[in-house]
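Quick start: read one record
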Amino acid sequence: MTAVSNPMNKLSHWYDIISKELDRCVDFWLKFSHDETFGGFFNCLSKDGNIYDETKYTWLQARQVWMYAKLYNETSRFKTNVILNAAKTGASFLLSNVKDPFTMKCSFSTTRNGKAIKIQRTIFSECFYSMAFAELFRATGELLYQTEALTMVDTILYWVTEDDSDLGRPHLPGCQPTNTMAVPMMVLCIIKEVKSLQDRKYPDATDWAIKQILAHRQRNNTVVLENVTLDGKEVGGCEGRLMNPGKSMYVCALLHCGIDMSSKCMLNRPTKMHQSGNKMADKKHRVIKCRHKQNLDG
């Protein structure tokens, strides 16, 4: 047995590779993405760091804040003022530019100086916004960040479980309402991020999200579909054929976290979803078959 083939040596070998890649990645974004004039981050960079589009996307602005704060909180070599100040600078751009204080909706994209370009009729910009401030509160202890995170989460949960009219999505007569897995997935994700703030548990929203996600197991647990009807049946046409194996496996991890906060769901159910995701793995080439419209018949 060679040194690298030994399981522990192999683990150490890959840990070193991943660690160096993480350092390289963080250095790249610290060097090239920061907008020193208007704040926030440039998202559209070529591999050599050149900016090819100055549009700023809230998903990416918030996720970069979250990542800097997460690195600061959990990785000793990144617990530096450089990383923390980068997170706080990004948060300042979010606070000043992306949220409408009256509607609580966040811009999907803005100009370089923070003027809104587009607002989506979904919850996802708001989810990433709340996650960024939750993690930054853990890094700083500043109550402003905690308040931003919790207020936004409360608003999101109201939209998805009680009244979605503030999202601005019209209810058209020919549109069939569907349960889209991305929504309960993100609900579990934000609850996971904020549940330690002020000891928030959100048991009702957790149970709702788990129930919604489990409805996506179809055909005797052999497939996980992105879209199902509100009563948990398959949707016809192209919309009903959409599958995302990577998301299915990520949802499994979230379900295990959710089940820790819920007494109403069986622990073996996420495992079955994971097995469904594994069926879409190409074991020969060690990749996931990510077909946008997976052929459900073969």
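Residues 98 and 205 are 26 Å apart (CA to CA).
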